[in-house]
Amino acid sequence: MPSPTAINLFKGRKASFIDKFINWALTGGRVIVIFTELLALLAFLYRFSLDSQIIDLHSKIKQELAVVKLLNNNENTYRNLQERLKSINTLDPQAAERVELIKTIYNTVPEGLSVSQMFLDGKSAQIDISVQSPQAVSSFVKSLKQLPQVKGTNITRVENKTSQAIILVGLTVTLK
Question: How high is the pLDDT of residue 83?
Fold first, then answer.
């Protein structure tokens, strides 16, 4: 059997620019469209995972907020304890100094004089004494003035109790 012969009526004619563009648009355009749709699908899936993470984080924040509210009372107690410990640490060295000062003052008390009350604050001491003779008061005031911690002394009150045969004296001792 003889082979069929093909007749080419466009022989010698090259494909035009429009033909080439249409051919490219139909083949390459498909690739671009598929790539764009794939990119949009990936963006949608990524957005879905981000939304899921946001929801998880919001629920975790709510849980943590509940824990913080629950522990708020404990934190207030802890802070109060820290403040009190800080105060104790600052007052502890002062307490030892004050105890030594009180011991020193009591060691200077002459015989026949009794201390009924002593109040010690940061810069002064209030001492109430009862005595039977004014000489004991004078010697006590002189001995107080000689102490290195004492800056000065003032007699603030003198009261004579003749029915009990005692003199009540109030002293203010200014400390250095």
Answer: 93
